[in-house]
Amino acid sequence: MASWNDYNDARQNPNLIPKGTIAKVRLTIRPGGFDDPSQGWTGGYATRGSTGAVYLNGEFTVSEGPYAKRKIFTLIGLYSPKGPDWANMGRSFVRGMLNSARGISDKDVSPQAQAARRIGGFADLDGLEFVAKVDIGTDANGEEKNEIRMAVTPDHRGYAEAMGAHRMSATAPAYTPPAQPPSQPAAPIPHGAFPAAASAPPAGNDPRPAWAR
């Protein structure tokens, strides 16, 4: 039983969702108004920091379970002047989100799976529901905060339960790309649509994790 005289065993931050928690989340992109059509960045979804770093400002809301309605804020890297690592991680994260949301194994290389990993623009990601693994990072002040860096795909044993095993079969239904008029074929993500060029936020205002600056 908790003691009200000794607080050494009290949690340091009771508002944090435990690291490793598997939860279904819904992504809302907080628009930053930055576009670069040459990179496939349109619709005003991307944000460009004061030193040129470009990212999607993600708000992830837990859909159900004990942490329902809790919000987790994480940036999805599109470009960093420090090099391609942050953008490559952003692309991998989006690939995982699409696999998770559309029930595609990461190992599936069929034409249908490849089509499921293409988007027409960032609008296709806004409102996406998928299964995520909650992590803990630090904010600009060094304080701990929840982050989402990884999507959980159907290959993971916790996927079916998080997606709602009672509402789905053990194997998610195959993703069917939306029909497009013959004159407007589904547009693939341009090669390098996430990495780009620009210059990144000064240390004090840089919202990216320290290692990506």
In words, what does this structure look like?
Strands 1, 2, 3, 4, 5, 6 and 7 form a 7-stranded antiparallel β-sheet that branches. It is globular and about 60 Å long. It has a domain at 22-160 and 192-198. Helix content is 13%, strand content 26%. The chain is built from 3 helices and 7 strands. The longest helix has 17 residues, at 85-101. It has helices at residues 85-101, 111-116, 159-163, and strands spanning 22-29, 34-36, 41-48, 54-62, 71-79, 129-138, 144-152. It is α+β, with helices and mostly antiparallel strands. A hairpin with a 4-residue loop joins strand 2 and strand 3.
Summarize the structure.
The chain contains 3 helices and 7 strands, in the order E-E-E-E-E-H-H-E-E-H.
Radius of gyration: 19 Å
Total helical segments:
3
Strand content: 25-35%
Count of DSSP E strands? 7
Quickly list its features.
213 residues; alpha+beta
Question: What is the fold's blueprint, element by element?
Answer:
Elements: E1 22-29, E2 34-36, E3 41-48, E4 54-62, E5 71-79, H1 85-101, H2 111-116, E6 129-138, E7 144-152, H3 159-163
Antiparallel strand pairs: 1-4, 1-6, 2-3, 3-4, 4-5, 6-7
Region (Disordered): 172-213
Biased composition (Pro residues): 175-188
Biased composition (Low complexity): 193-203
